[in-house]
Amino acid sequence: MNSLILLLILVFGGALFSYLLNKFLPILRDGFVVLLMLLVNYVFFTMDSSTQIDFEMGGIHLQWAFTSAAFLFGIIVSILGLLSIIYSTAYMKGKDRLGYFYMNFLFSIGSMLGILMSRDLISLFFFWEIMTWSSYFIVIYSGKDVDKRGLKYIVFSAIGAYSMLMAIVIIYGFTGSFLLTDIFDSIFAIKASYQLAIAILLMIGFGVKSALMPLHVWAPGAYSGSPMSFTALFSGALSKMGVFGFALVLFNLVSNQNWLVNEVIAWLAAITAVLATFYAVIQSDAKKLLAYSSIAQLGYIVIGLASGTYLGVMAGLFLAVLHAVFKGTLFMAVGAVERQAGTTDMTKVSGLIRKMPWTFTASLISIIALAGIPPLGGFVGKWMLYEALITSDHYYLVIMVFLSSTAAFLYSYRILFGLFLGQEEPEFAHVKEAPLPMLIPMLLLSGISVLSGTFPGFILEPIQDAMVVFGFDSRIPNIEWWQLTVLFNSWGDKVVLQNVMIAIMGVFLIALAFITIKGYRKQRYVTTKDISSSGEIIQPEDNMTFQIDFYKPFERAIWPLLKRRIDDYYTDLGNGLEALFDLVRRIYNGNGQFYAIYVMAFLALLLIAGTKYFGF
Amino acid sequence: MVISPVQYIAIPLMAAFLIPLFGKLNKDLARIIPGLVLLYLSYISVVLMNQIISSNTIIVEIIAGWRPPWGINLVFSPLTGFLASMFSMLGFVIWMYTYNFKPEVDNAQKQKFYVLFMMLITGATGIVLTGDIFNLFVFLEITAISAYSLTAFYRERDGAEAAFKYLLIGSFSSTLILLAILLLYTQVGTLNMAEIALKMPGVDPFMKGVILILFFVGFGIESELFPLNGWSPDVYTQAPGPIGAIFAGMVVKAGIYGLVRVVFTLFDVKEILPLLVIIGMITMAVAEVIALRQGKLKRMLAYSSIGQMGLVAVAFGIGTHDSVFAAIFLMFNHAIIKGMLFLSGTYLVYNSTEKTLDDVDGIGKHLPFTSFLFALGALAIVGMPPFAGFWSKLYLLMAAADVRLMTVIAIILVVSVIEIVYYFRVIHRIYFRERISTIELKIPSFNAKLAMFILAIIIVAVGVYPDLISGFIERATTDLLDKQSYIQSVLSVGLK
Asked: To bridge B254 with a disulfide, which of A399, B113, B127, B423 should be the other Cys (CB 3.0-4.6 Å)?
């Protein structure tokens, strides 16, 4: 059987089967879903890259195949899918409606694979909508605040999906085909104004999923409200579908002819990155913090793509892969804290480092990657991004990115400090390390984080293949992936990492040596002028750390920026519309006589106007 | 027995008269007979559809040996056959659903229900099959009268008021159509639809316009177009649950068929089509907007139903082959999906007197199967893949894009967002609220579950593989738009 169809049958069939299994044999459910995802990974990675299907459905020519770009994103989906499913088996233990949960989980994974393999816009949209409703069903799974959170997600998704659909049918109206290959050839023949309209509509469609401001308002609630095992996939892979779509649209449909579109997108993304980072800093819930951080990180990715240069796109895609890795880990880690300690509120929980050392290790590595500190992958990606923006003369964007990534240090530190450092509270004395099925995915992913910093080549290689699909030629010299490392770079002229790396490592080593030597003296004598303790002997129960209003001064400084939230505008708009709708409702006042008058008036109007306007 | 289209009318009509008689013999017979009748009608639908598809002809049945244009004739073509088959099969499913619907309703009441049901089937099927315009009027009256009575079926509810409103507006419809037929007869001197179509080019344009407007308003009332649809929300709300499905699936469909037949075949004036698009858009926008503000489940479904009919009108109004294809697909989808929503929604608010949305809070835990089907129907009607509603919406948008009606596309999509909001609100309520209402729930009987399940299967099957149905719809579209071959095949029958 064709492996593409096999893949879809496996995931979608498996989804339905897992639902039934939960009904009749719940004991086998966890094993089944993990096995299923292993199988999916096996099929995915052993697939022949030239596999393609063409078929007709409902009179529409559909085509499925994995291009190398799709394959790159497919790697994220399948691996992160597998790991988050493994994580789920422990994370979701003891919760109800697990059949529902796993079914929709697998539906989302399947629909993402479907989106990636679509080579025509109809299948793309078809799977896109399946992804929308299946993820929506998990977003509302917890049942908390559903009316607001869930509705926001589905309404924004619907707006996005329908703008996309409108663009799709307009494209069809002009080119007469849904096949991407046909469209790429003929899109530039249609009128420029329509081209722009198509671009904008598609941008809205993909912008919603990649949480680009001002379309991001659904994301914090949806990310933080879903079960964390799903959010790992949601933020890691599902939002990347928006990025994938962006890449498709920007490079194949809009091209660099419309440089203005690129600029606008880049600026929107930059604003997203900055504002979302600020929001992230002032959050006191770790889940919310990570949600905003995801939005900000997606901003970087889109900036990279929109910059349009070879290096920029490469940086964007590299960050996309990496974001999936470290944000996946972080959401899993926060999920572990949530499960073990019962809350992720950083003003309450603290000092878990000794209770959950492995979770801490995974978080630490991911935070280092996220903040872009060498030698982990985040650094490589950010470096490439800066380089790309500077060489393409986007100096203001560099400032924005720099501002945002500096502010990102604040929240990076806060999440580590808030959850793991600080004083141990008696109320969290019972907390234990997360079970193995939760630890293994986290540690595996942090392993990838480490690897990606030292050997970025193994991610850059598929990215380089992917970029051929987006119309760039391959430029990396043909070398094996392990040769392309941070320290021994034989890559090319643009990014010279090794000097920087050596310098940073040098500083790091000196600092390490300094701290070690300084800390060698065990006993420390405190003078009366030492204001940190003023000579008093500190008792264990004295609270020396603070967690409430952690970044108060910062918050005060950025307050003018955050005062009026975009959210409020949408709420006002929604309320205004509902009031308007209530007015419309008065038309049907329940009085039969009125209805009769409507009929007569309509008839009279038609008879009077009809002869004039309809040309009888 | 030789299978012929005339049985579509004769058998249910006969059954309607025989039900009280057989009810005397055995009280269960009264409710078994309609099932047998509808099963038989479904069977002949399959046979006849097969026949016309394989031989690529249409069946014209002459009644009482008077060949057209003198006598009444029935036309079983890909379009009319498709609709008639849809009515019979949907009717059978609804019969299955009603079989045990209200066990406490006494036998005499039940007999009445089935008599009216059979009459309604006769009327609706007759409207689509007949080739004679006056005959169409008669069937419309049969449908309307049985629909009035079914609306007022429950005495203890406000059904009488709703029925009265319906009667009031419905009599406008009948009067206007009758007037139109009279005027038409003075102009062309015939009642046979094929011959009217043939003679139409010679009619005075002014008279043509007036007659068309009368028809438009008359059928517009039946097909729930704004502002002629004041009757319908009340009717849907007050009529027994399954009757809502019958309205959405048959009565309204027959109404829009009449409108379309008149516009496309009899008059064939393209000038009225933009009006249809505009009215359709307004109908859709107004209805969906109101549906968003409804606090009662059945009323919400009613407005949603009106909105969908607006969409159908828009699709017919665009008037190209593709859009008519989309329109017929929409009619089919709306019949099955809204049918299922009414059937499952009825059980969600079965014992509630007010039938407000609060009554469905948290019901997903207590009625999992019904709730699931309702949610599935909601996803399908808003056009989510992989359900049937997706394809019809897609085809409509494609057709609109072909003729560059970008505003129409935009409005349809904006309205779809509104639709999503109110349907998903109900899903939230069903699954994610705590149940506070103390109203006793009614577990659907097995046959009701089976009936809903059949519709769900069709929705999913068509959604995953639209080619199941698109071949028939394609033929129906060609049939509707090919006026000449309709005239030809009706008038040439029995000549040799």
From this structure: B127
